[in-house]
Structure formats: structure tokens, C-alpha cells
Amino acid sequence: MRRGLVLNLISNIAFFVAGYAIHWFLGGFASPADYGVVGTIITVLDFEYLFVSNGARQSLSRNIASHRHDGRQVIVRTLAVQASIVAVFFLIDFAGAPLFGLMLGDGTLDRYFRYAAFLVPANGLYVVMLGINDGLQRFGRSAFLSTFYPIVKLGTIPLIVLVFPREPVIGVEVGYCGAMVLTILIGLAMLVPARSLLPDGDGTPFPWRDAMHGTLSFSLFFIMASLVLSVDTLVVKAELPDRMAGYYTGAMNFGKTTYYLLQAFAVIILPVVSRLIAEDARGEALAKARGLFLLVFALVAPIAATISATAPDLLAAFYSPAYATAAPALSCLAFSSFFMGVTVILNMTLNAERDTRFSDLLSLVSLAVVVPLFVASARYGITALAVSSMAATFTAMAVSYVEVRRRFGDVMSRRAWAAIGCDAVLWIVMAVVSRTTFHVTDFVALMVVYAVVYGAFVAVLVRIGVLDVRGIAAMFAKRTEDADGSATGGTATRKTIAKEKDGD
After folding, report:
1. 35 Cβ contact partners less than 8 Å away, ≥ 6 residues apart
2. Nearest Cα to 51, choosing from 191, 165, 215, 175?
């Protein structure tokens, strides 16, 4: 589990670093209006990906990890459901391209959406491979593929410069699709030796109903997450001037940093907790969940706090001083994306028990509330829209935490709460320094400052006892097999579990 978490964090870092490199290039190469078109296309694709991505991936991960069903049957039926969903969205993008242009007030979007349609089936197959590896807890393979794809995707930059200098949007689409196809071919080759690792199951069949419900239920939840994090960009494109869409896209790119990082925790927690619950090791499952949440607030939340506090410097250094217009929006979006990432992890913890009713209800209520809220708040500008997003994600996170505590147990230890207090102090200090005494206009220099501040902050957490490195390492130690085949976590792990139960 420890190795899987580290590798998936690395893959997510590679994902957003590569994405930022591409956006940094586009922000300087294309006009704000063209950059806004890129942001619009990517936003719509992100929304569609969650129909064809997380649903199938998480369903495969949970059902293979539980060892209740025959792994081959799980894959075949989930893949069939996935193919039907992919077909629907391909047709929506390809045949309905003129409607997108009409809805978003830009008739030039038609052909862009037709080309983007081919990214949907490629992504659908890509995530099926990730889900199979996650279910087998071959997290290293998943992490490799998730790292390889964004690195290859960087080829989009020379592709635009050399082949599509006058059509940067087409260059982005071709580059993304080519990188994904190459990753799929490598992933399929890597899965061939894993066929013997698929579970035979305990004789319980995997009905089509479960394949559809599992995939669609996870999809519904991640659709909600996508809408909350992405539909505001579409609202800006439809309701405000084109340049504001470009500025808001810049803010959103940095705002989503912590959400991408937290996906690594969500990928790990679902199969691990599912397996432990299936083995009736609920205490160990809760201990591992508490350890993960401590890391979330001690290692990831400081990033959100730093980005929020220094938003003007970050946008001006990365893009240009004009993008500082979106700094108040970024200050809110940094926390909005973090809150949604925590909401995802909380609901993956709940769904490990195969009961998705709460997540389904949360998704439906959010879908009914968020879109009208964003449309109404957009009348007052991008800052008001970002404030609405932050309020919506905080509410979803708080409600999810209450439900997890009721059904599963309290995943927040005293150390996790202490980490939140330290994060608040960090935000105050960075905000005061950024606005009064320290301004960095060079992006590389700003990244060095961020690294120094982050390293010092983590060192302080270790020094004051909020982060117990040895305890966390023992908690995430790989379970071993006794001579009789029963799984144990070792003496160190059992002691750590006992401490966590006492509220450490």
C-alpha cells in the first residue's frame, strides 16, 4: 500500500506537471480567446471522461479486489457496459457538435468537438486497464501507465509548433489522442502476464445488473465531482467575455492541483479497504483510512493553502500580469478542488462496503443544486462563481464526513485535526508575506520558494509530532502471509491500529 501510494502520487504529479507545461506553452502561444476555446474543449472532455473513466475503473477495482467473483467475468461484463457508454458519448460529440457551438455561443467549435469525439473511446479502454491493475493491487503498473501517458503527451508542444501553428486546438486534440493510443498498446502488453493473477472467486456469479449498477453508480458520483469542478468554466464561456474564460481557465488549472494529487489516495483506498472488509478486518481498514487522511491534511492541504494565499504571484509569474485578474477566484478554487478531492476519498471509503446509496443521493442533490447556483453567481463575476464552487464542495465534504463517521468510523485522528490548524496558520503567514513584503515575478524562482516553504512546513509537522514517520510507515506496511495463509500486518501494524483506535 505504501509503495502504491507513493507511485500513484508520482504519476499524478507527472500528470499535472505535464498539463501545466502544455498550458504554460498555450498561454503564451495562443491568444486568451483561443486559450479559452482549449479550456472549453478540455472541460467538456473532462466531464465525459467521468462517464467512461472512473465508473469502470473503480467498479473493476472493487470487484476484482474483493475476490468474490470470477475476475474474467467481471472484466468482460464491465467492459461491455463501458463500450455502450463510450458509444453514446462518441455519438453525442460527433453528431451533436453543432449543438455545442450553439449552446456555447461559438459556431467555430463544431469541428473541434468532432475531433474530440475520438478521445472518448481511447480513454475508455485506457481506464479499464488501470482498473484491472488496481483490482489486482498492481499499483506499480497503474502508476507507470499513468506516468507514461502525460510524459508522452508533452509531444503536443512540438506538434503544435511544427504541424499546427495556426490550429493549436487541433494540435492539442491530435497530441492527446496519439499519446493515449501509444499508452494503451503498452498497457495491453503489460496485462498479458497478469491473466493468471485474476481471482477465480468464491462461486458467486457477477450478474449484468451488478456490472451496470457498479459502473453507473461510480460514474454518477464522479459526474457530480466533475460538474462542481468544471461546469463553472462552461458558465464563464457562455455568460462572460472570451478573455474572462481564458483567465478563469488559468485559475482553474492551478486550482485543480490538489484534486489531481488526491486521486492517488482515492485509487488506493477503495481496493485496500474493500479487501480488508471482505476479510473481516474492519479495525485495520479504519486504521489505514485514518493514516491516509492524516497524510491528506498534513501533506496535500498545505499545497492548497499556499496556492490560495499566493494566487496573484502565481498567475502573474506563470502566465502574465493580466491573469492576476483571476487571483481572487484562484484563492477560492484552490480550496474548492481540495474539498472535492477529500469528498471523493470519503465516498470511496463508504463504497468499499458495496453500498452506494449515500453517494448516489449526494450526486443527485448536487447535480440539481450546483448548475443553477453557478449560473446565478456568474452574473456577479468569476470571483463570485469561485466562492459558490468552494461553498458547494465544502458542504459535500462535510456531509460525507458525517456519513463516514456514522457508518464506518471516525477517519479523523487528533493529529489530522492538528494538521488542519497548522494549515490555517500557513495560509495566514503566506498571505501576509505575499501581499506586503515579498513578490516573485519569475515562475522558476516562485517554484523554488514553494519547495523551500513546503519542506520547512513538513519538517515542523514532524518536529512537533503531528507527523509520525515511523508510525505511518508501519501502518502502511505490506501485509504478510502466515504459514497457515492468514493475512497479518505484523506487531508494529497492530500496535499502530491500537493507537489509532484510541484517537491518536
Report:
1. 26, 27, 246, 249, 250
2. 215
* Domain boundaries, given as residue ranges, for the chain: 1-218, 219-484
Strands (E), 357-491: 480-481, 487-488
Which amino acid makes up residue 325? T
CA torsion angle 137 140 141 144 (round to 10): 150
Torsion region of 440: left, alpha or beta (phi above 0 gives left; psi -120 to 50 gives alpha): beta
Distance from chain centroid for Cα 109: 27
Q: Cβ–Cβ contacts within 10 Å for residue 405, how many?
A: 13
In the DSSP assignment, the letter for residue 105 is: T
Give Cβ neighbours of residue 383 (< 8 Å, ≥ 6 apart): 328, 329, 332
pTM of the model: 0.69
Q: In sequence order, what DSSP letters do the residues of 435-449 get, joined into one string?
A: HHT-----HHHHHHH
**Cβ-Cβ contacts under 8 Å for 190 (sequence gap 6 or more):** 129, 141, 144, 145
| pLDDT for the residue numbered 110 | 76
- How far is it, in rounded angstroms, from Cα 6 to Cα 4? 5
- For each successive 10 residues of the chain (504 residues), what is the average pLDDT? 62 71 69 68 68 71 74 82 83 78 69 80 84 77 82 82 76 84 87 76 74 70 72 72 74 82 75 70 81 90 94 85 85 92 87 73 84 84 88 93 90 93 94 81 86 94 86 57 36 40 41
Say if residues 109 and 100 touch (Cβ distance below 8 Å): yes
Check: CB of residue 354 under 8 Å from CB of residue 368.
no
Grid look-up 515511523 returns: 470
The position carrying cell 494538521 is 419
Quick one: cell of 363? 450526486
Q: String of b and e for 42-61 (b: at least 16 CB within 10 Å)?
A: bbbbebbbbbbbbbbbbbbb
pLDDT at 123: 84
pLDDT of residue 353: 67
Task: Return the C-alpha torsion angle 190, 191, 197, 199, nearest 10.
Answer: 160
